[in-house]
Amino acid sequence: MQFSIWHWAIVLLLIGVPVFFAVQSARKPSQSPADLVGFGGWLMLLAIGQALAPLRTLAGLGNSAEGFQQLMTLPNGPLAVYGEVALNLAFLALQLVVLVSMLRRSHRFPQLFLVQWFAIPAAFILDTAWISTVLAVPVNQVLAGDALATPLASFVFTGIWAAYVYRSVRVSNTFTRTSAPRQVASAS
């Protein structure tokens, strides 16, 4: 599969434009950090992405249905399918817990978001090991094609958001134990 110039242009737009605006907004300090509270700015984009993440996981399960039917005919195929579905449902449950904590403005949201970020490669590794072990096939056959590209891109993209969650004044003001926003200490 080759990427045309248009594919690269789309990738550049999808990655470059948000990075450009993030860098630009980071250069300009806010006039009043206490005003940065609630779902606005970049946090709104994160909230939309987090709300869509469980739907993406469900869509991935739906898209795998045909592959699951093919696996069911193999020896130990049902065990492989049930294990993979259980792993995906566990990841879906984690995504829902993170979503609920975000919507409730829980002070635990940043930690849960970090756990969700680390769960991406953990789920991928566990899934690959499970399928390889149960079906007795080499790992390189399980990772055929672009099986590594999607989880790797998801891990990198979520990592950028995890960095935002831990550096953002808006996030620290929104997800607190109390309802009062925290002030940013000024260097005097």
UniProtKB/TrEMBL annotation:
Q: What are the transmembrane regions?
A: 6-24, 36-59, 79-100, 112-136, 148-166
Coiled-coil region(s) at which residues?
Answer: none
Tell me which UniProt keywords the record has, alphabetically.
Membrane, Transmembrane, Transmembrane helix
Instruction: Specify the protein name.
Output: DUF2569 family protein
